[in-house]
Each structure stands twice: as structure tokens, then as C-alpha cells.
Amino acid sequence: MFRWFNEPQIDFMKPRRFFLAISTLACLAGIYAGVLLSQGKVNLGTDFGAGVMLRLSATNGVAMDQIRQTLKGEGYAKAQIQQVKEEGSGIKLIIKIKQDSSKEVGTTGGEVLGVFNKNFPDAHFTLDGSDEVGPAVSQKLRDVAFEAFLLSMLGILLYIAVRFDFRFGVAAIITTFHDILVVLGIIILTGREFNLLQVTALLTLAGYSLNDTVVTFDRIRENLKLLVKDHSFISLVNLSVNETLSRTINTSGTVFLTLLPLCLMGGDTLKDFAFTLLLGVVVGTYSSIFVASPILVEWNLLSGPKSQQK
User: Fold this and answer.
1) Weakest mean pLDDT among 84-88, 175-179, 239-243, 252-256
2) What tens digit of pLDDT does each residue of 67-92 get?
3) Are the C-beta atoms of 67 and 81 separated by less than 8 Å?
4) Cα separations (Å) of 279 from 19, 185, 261?
5) Residue-wise burial string across 11-36, b where 16 or more C-beta atoms lie within 10 A, e elsewhere
6) Which of 112, 133, 154 is the last residue of a domain?
7) Are residues 98 and 241 in the same domain?
8) 6 within domain boundaries
9) Fewest CB atoms less than 10 Å from the CB: which of 153, 158, 194, 196?
10) CATH number for the domain including 145?
11) Can you give the residue range of the structural domain that contains 129?
């Protein structure tokens, strides 16, 4: 394995309380984002928000301001319009419209297409596809996503409890929640769309973060058996983090470089998914060093013997 450092001796644990404070503030922002999400006050995808997503194309371009004004005048004032591609003089649009209970399912696409062809006959709009989700289905999808998240967290707790001990399990769960809350907060508060694909990305980064944390915890456990007589608990944890530092950088760097092109050059749906994973890699790497291990140290300071706290 390529090593970035030759026996590094960085004191990661010295500023641990500063980083724990920063992480606590970030988690509070994530909790606030979660509250907004539960109230439906965020940019929800059609799978969570109950609505219609239309994909339209035109052979001739039309100014976006004209499209917005036309939809507003036809009763679609809250429609979200995104121009995703230009082909020659033509355009491709994605339009998201909230569910209207007074309309029959499947009629919105034809109505919007009729509005465009009436107001912009020279553009020659066509409806390439539409996705429509009703309120009952979107609620079901939200419930299933929440259940999947809870089950994954339970599985993580059981795995860590069996492999390590209670302290390590709690620290791993807190760290995983930290990563998810921080990434969720950034996604929601920056106005990015939250949909089922984002839930998939969050669960994926939870597994990645756990893997990185387990590697560090495994080294701490080994050193507890071999070096506990020669080191205090703080110095032992610090030593373990330093010993796994090159591995952490190599793993995270490889994943980061793989996701970066997808984030920059992928399609619109893939970009958001890759961005969430990319963000998760950065946050997960940070938390394995500055959150998971410091939690163990603080726990030991509160419960361990004075001789082990130096």
C-alpha cells in the first residue's frame, strides 16, 4: 500500500473538542433540514412530493422567461422549469408540477403540451415522457425510505456490538448519524432536489462511513491489547488514527476521484447522486478521524481511571 506519511505523529486528539463542537453545529443544521423535510417545505422530487414531472423538447428555442410567464398565466405559477439540454436551435425541458387533486391522473402532460403548442406554435413542442405520483404513493415511499434507514441503523448497531463492544457501537452509530445529518443538511439547505435516489446515496454513504470507522476502531482494539501498558488511552487512540491515516487517504481519494467526473459531467439525475456521494466521502473521512475516535476518548475521560486519561 502506498503510504503518504512515514510513521506520522499528528496529534489529532488535541483539538478534538473544537471539531466536536463544529460537528454538533453541523448536526443541528441537519436536524433543522430534517424538520423542513418532514413538513414538506423542501425541494422534493415527484416520488416524495406528489406531483408530475414532464420531459418536453422543442425543435426551436423559446426564452425561459416566456415559458415561465405562459405557465403562470395558465395556472401553473409554482411549476419548476429546468432547461437541461440544447440541441442546435432546439431545447429540452424538465417541468415539475405539484399534484392537483382536482385533475385526473395522466392529464397534466397533455394540458401543458397544449399550452405550449398554442402559445409557441413555431417551437413544435413534443412530450417525451412524464412521471406522475399521487399523494398516497408518495407518502408510502416516504414511509418505506424511513423504515429502510432505521433498519440499516439497527443493523449497524448490532454488527458493531458483536464485533467490538458497546462503546464502539454507540460511537459508530453517532458518527453515522453525524455523516447523514451533515450531508442531508447541505442537500436540503442548498435547495437540491430530495428524492429516492438521494435516499439511496445517503444509505450508501452510511455504509462507506461505517467501513472507514471500523478500520480505525479495529486498530484501536488491536493496540488496546498490545500497547495498553505503555500508552494512555488518548495516546493509544491517537497512535491508531495515525497508523490508519494513509489507508484512509488512499481509500477516500480513490473513491473521490471516481465520483468527481460523474459529478462534473454526468446527467442531471446522476450529478445530484454523485454530488451526495462525493460529499459523503469527504464528511465520512473527516468523521472517522475527528468524530468517532474523539467520542471514544471523551467517553473514556468520563468513565476511565485517572491513570488512563493522560
Assistant:
1) 84-88
2) 888 888 888 877 878 787 666 667 88
3) yes
4) 18, 11, 14
5) ebbeebeebbeebeebbebbeebbee
6) 133
7) no
8) no
9) 158
10) 1.20.1640.10
11) 51-133
Q: For the sheet with 125-133, list strands across it.
A: 80-87, 90-98, 51-58, 125-133
Would 2 be classed as within a structural domain? Answer: no
- The structural domain count of the chain equals 2
User: C-alpha cell of 23?
Assistant: 460537528
Nearest-angstrom CA–CA distance, 296 and 169: 10
Select from 133, 150, 184 the last residue of a domain.
133
The top-scoring range by mean pLDDT among 2-6, 43-47, 107-111, 175-179 is 175-179
CA atoms of 26 and 23, how far apart (whole Å): 5
How is 111-140 classified by DSSP, letter by letter? Answer: HHHHHHHHH-TTT-EEEEEEEEE-HHHHHH
Indicate whether 189 belongs to any domain.
Answer: yes
pLDDT at residue 104, rounded to an integer: 64
Q: Are residues 263 and 300 in the same domain?
A: yes
The mean of the pLDDT values for the chain is 83
Burial 144-168 (b: 16+ CB within 10 A, else e): ebeeeeeebbeebbeebeeebeeeb
Q: Looking at the whole model, is its pTM more than 0.85?
A: no
